[in-house]
Amino acid sequence: MSTADIIARCEALYEDLDFTAARKWKEADPSRKVIAYMPVYVPREIIHAAGMLPLGIMGGGDGLEVIHGDAYYQSYICRIPRSTIELGLSKRMDFVDGMLFPSICDVIRNLSGMWKLLFPGKYVRYFDVPQNYKDDVGGSYYTNELNELREGLEHLSGRKISDDALRASIEVYNENRKLVQAVYAMRSREPWKVPSSEVYLLMRAGLVVPVEEHNQILRDYLAAAEKVQASKRDNCRVVINGSFCEQPPLNLIKSIELAGCYIVDDDYMIVHRWLRNPVSTSGDPMQNLSLAFLHESIATAAKYDDKEEDKGKYLLEQVRGNAAEGVIFAMPSFCDPALLERPMLADRCSEHNIPYISFKYAENSGQMQPIREQAGTFADSIKLWS
Amino acid sequence: MSAATSPEVIKESSMLKQKGMIAGNYDRLTGTKESGEKVVSTFVPGNLNELIMCFDMVNNLPETNAIQNGMRKVSGGMIMDAEKAGHSEDVCTYVKADIGMMGRGNIAPNGKPMPAPDMLLLSYTGCFTFMKWFELLRHEYKCPTVMLQIPYQGDGKITKNMRDFVVKQLKEEVIPMFEKVSGVKFDIDRLREYLKNSAKAEDNLVWVLESAKNRPSPIDAYFGGVYYIGPMFTAFRGTADAVEYYDLVRKEIEQRIREGKGPITPEGDMKEEKYRLVVEGPPNWTSFREFWKLFYDEGAVVVASSYTKVGGLYDQGFRHDPNDPLGTLADYCLGCYTNNNLPQRVELLEKYMNEYQADGLLINSIKSCNSFSAGQLLMMREIEKRTGKPAAFIETDLVDPRYFSHANVKNRLESYFQMVDQKRSGASLAAA
After folding, report:
1. Inter-chain contact A340–B133, Cβ cutoff 8 Å?
2. DSSP state, residue A274
3. Residue A179 host element (H or E)
4. A132–B135: do the CB atoms touch at under 8 Å?
5. Residue A348's closest chain B neighbor by CA?
6. Complex-level ipTM beyond the 0.90 threshold
7. Where are the transmembrane segments (chain A) (predicted)?
8. Cis bond upstream, residue B216 (ω within 30)
């Protein structure tokens, strides 16, 4: 199978806003349940261990006409909640049994309450995470929160989630993390062979198909990409920051690449890479998931940095670890976490002489010429004068 | 209406007392260089004033500084300064007004520079922006910062896990940091004494807010309400001054009820109560007087508001409890209005609509504040559906004058009052 074949399948999954693959998975067995989740992170292992399908919802992108959703939001609120409401009201998610709203910002937080009001009877949980990273403080709180989630899913399915099932699910997600990291590493090593638009679609596929299937897709892609013959271009290597929630249109990623940038790291769909190392499969699985969250999570604007000196540390690691030459802060309009974080990260970049540019987008942005010009000028300036 | 043509503002004794308290606190804040007192910056919702007092520290609230600058019409320039420095036009204007204020020397309303904080107490209660705001301040001040994370009531209840988490943070993070910065050892009995004062003042605040159930309402529970909540939500809860203030304001309102008077406005007593409204959302501060005038000129009085609950839902029964000092602080933080989920907020507004016999709901949607604003259009629909009363939606901002359009707000309010009239006449015809 060629990379083109694999990506064609991933692109079809990405464009399918009726979530046909997830529907088919559910229809195969009447006892199956689907639990949707929004960015940025939920412990999918618990959903998987309950025999359910975790379904990542990243809004409606640029392929969804928002008719009802706009009536629920003022003009100064980002687009992802309105297109998510649209997905719900248009019955595209009518097969979904529950929805998790991670702690990321006030808009997604309030959307959890809206979902309760709009879809009574569905399992809805605001998934809180600790901003205190001490084992016996934030860790205890988070372990209890995880147990509440576990109990909620048990109640929904009518069956217990065993520790063994959790360990098995952690194992399969550890494999997924390893494969995802391998794809990212390959792109960083040879970005001319692994375009970012393809990496993006590969990761999007992982949101809507069972993890075992995603693992196979990733294995197939890694094998196929090795055989790709492509010439290295004189592009500039950049890290994308700020796109962790509302996703940019695929064309925006392609435009950045066409403008002369190799994206060597990013924060798209960080649920796949939230935990940087494998989660232990021995001992108490909930405790292990909790400790992994506390000590192995990547940094993102939705999290509190306990120490001032930690601000931007992860971004600097991304830049250095991938030999990047610059940072593109690409953030959704009205995204509080990303936009409030940016000045601090920008200062870190300046302190370390890392060039950067910033622009905003919406998931349905259509006009790419300004983005291409900005990214192209940035790439040229790095190549000519950096 | 320009300030030059404004009639003289009518002030009652309680107003003068509050003015003195605020001025005193600013003098204390700007005098710490001489007094040697330490300053802690923190937020209004989840404000732990009683605990701060236990360490002899002075409470500085960036939100109220932004409000002061908004009301004094100087916040606009500060916001633009922050935007020029790289802060997005899309984000909270309290944050930008605060950062812009810093760039202009952090001048307090008394004209003196405010000191840099010795400590930031990040009470992360009901607002995500708080977290980033204090990271930004820490980025500037490089001072000790302690986070108190308050879990959100996603399922509309406070669980044991949430409460335990908050208490544990108080014991293991917040109090040790206060001791370290202030050099004062924590004394739980001292905290109990302050909490007793808080509960006394809270009783009277609730009485004041609930006095709006009278017809005519002797208070405006939004525009006037922001003054009534002032001492309670800021640097005075737990003090003898606050107890005295709420005694005084209660007596004044008792007198107004006896005299059958409506609320006091900047132009004197409101004459006729034509519309009773419940308001959701914070007010606009840059045009506060003009905004209020649009209501009292039409005979509209706000009988209940959600904004006056951001610093605690005392009217729903919460009181600080000296018998459980840390637990009660946790309950307080967890219970603030914006820490309630949307269904809880809708239920509260519905309750206000019924209990205060309101004619309708008005939502003042604030561009800056997603914590309040995201979901308000659904809240409006729910209230209309549940009560059958008309609701209206206006949009302004907290302290960014660019987002207050007097003509737009006036037009919408006039249309809304007509809608209330039509609804009433429809109801009268149906009853006839």
Report:
1. yes
2. S
3. helix A163-189
4. no
5. B139
6. yes
7. none
8. yes
Q: Please tell me which of the candidates A73, A145, A335 has its beta carbon nearest to residue B377.
A: A73
Let me know: does B161 contact A144? Beta carbons within 8 Å.
yes
Contacts of A130 (CB under 8 A, 6+ apart): A137, A138, A139, A141, A142, A293, A294, B149, B165
Element (H, E) at B365: strand B360-366
Residue pLDDT, tens place only, A121-136: 999 999 999 999 999 9
Sketch out chain B's domains with CATH numbers.
11-187 (3.40.50.11890)
pLDDT tens digits for range B183-240: 999 999 999 999 999 999 999 999 999 999 999 999 999 999 999 999 999 999 999 9
Interface touch B367/A74, C-beta < 8 Å: yes
User: CA-nearest residue of chain B to A123?
Assistant: B155
Cβ contact A339–B90 (<8 Å): yes
A308 contact residues in B (CB cutoff 8 A): 138-139, 142, 145
Q: Is the pLDDT of residue B429 over 80?
A: no
Look at residue B259 in the predicted model and tell me its pLDDT. Answer: 96
Host H or E run for residue A236 = strand A236-241
Give chain A's largest Cα–Cα span. Answer: 63
Tokens representing residue B105 in the block = 């020397």
Backbone angles phi, psi at A293, to 5 degrees: -60, -45
How far apart are the CA of A111 and the nearest CA of chain B, in angstroms?
7
Measured between CA atoms, the residue of chain B closest to residue A331 is: B88
Q: State the pLDDT confidence band at B81, using cuts at 50, 70 and 90.
A: very high
What is the rounded distance in angstroms from the CA atom of residue B47 to the CA atom of residue B204?
19
Distance CA A266, CA A318 (A): 9
- Using the predicted structure, report yes or no on whether residue B8 has a pLDDT greater than 70: no
Say how far apart CA A109 and CA A114 lie, in whole Å: 9
Average pLDDT score, chain A: 97
Chain B interface test: which of A38, A141, A361 (most B C-beta within 10 Å): A141
The closest alpha carbon to A338, from A266, A251, A274, A273, belongs to A266
Q: What is the pLDDT of residue B425?
A: 84
Q: For residues A339 and B90, is the Cβ–Cβ distance under 8 A?
A: yes
Structure confidence by residue, pLDDT tens digits, B268-302: 999 899 999 999 999 999 999 999 999 999 999 99
Candidates B141, B152, B174, partner chain A, best to mutate (most A CBs within 10 A): B152
Mutate to test the interface with A, among B132, B365, B385 (most CBs of A within 10 A): B132
Is a pLDDT exceeding 70 seen at residue B2?
A: no
Residues of B within 8 A of A346 (CB-CB) are 86
* Residue pairs between chains A and B whose CB atoms are closer than 8 Å: 166
A344/B135 CB distance under 8 A: yes
Mean pLDDT of B415-419: 96
Residue B1 pLDDT: 38
pLDDT digits (tens, 9 = 90+) for A263-311: 999 999 999 999 999 999 999 999 999 999 999 999 999 999 999 999 9
Return the residue of B nearest to A131 by Cα: B149
